[in-house]
Design brief:
By secondary structure, this protein is an alpha+beta fold. Helix content is 41%, strand content 29%. It is built from three helices and five strands; from the N terminus they run H-H-E-E-E-E-E-H. A three-stranded antiparallel sheet has the order 1-2-5. A two-stranded antiparallel sheet has the order 3-4. The longest helix is centred in the N-terminal third of the chain and has 20 residues. The radius of gyration is 19 Å and the shape is elongated. The mean pLDDT is 95.
Length: 94
């Protein structure tokens, strides 16, 4: 499902307009992004948690030349699925 399909599904499910659904999805994405940027997490009970994970600096190799290089430490956004979502995907109910 892409963004357009998600907008259509949300508008259908809520009985609202596609424009409202688009604004709601954009606002949700902006809120989650801003929260993660601050270093906080967003927990939606039963669905999952959006969080920032730290990656340590490490050594790597350039795949084209095989030369060793240093990869800097970084932060990466991550999603950890909640129990209800896991159960739904696995065909059961929690």
């Amino acid at each position: 499902m892409n963004r357009k399909e998600l907008i259509d599904a949300l508008a259908t499910k809520t009985g609202g307009t596609k424009a409202d659904a688009d604004r709601n999805i954009a606002a949700l994405i902006d809120i989650i992004t801003a929260t993660l940027k601050k270093g906080d997490s967003v927990a939606l009970v039963g669905f999952g948690t959006f969080e920032v994970r730290k990656r340590a600096a490490r050594n790597g190799r350039n795949p084209a030349t095989g030369a060793a290089l240093k990869i800097k430490a970084s932060k990466a956004p991550a999603f950890k699925a909640g129990a209800n979502l896991k159960a739904a995907v696995n065909g059961g109910k929690k």
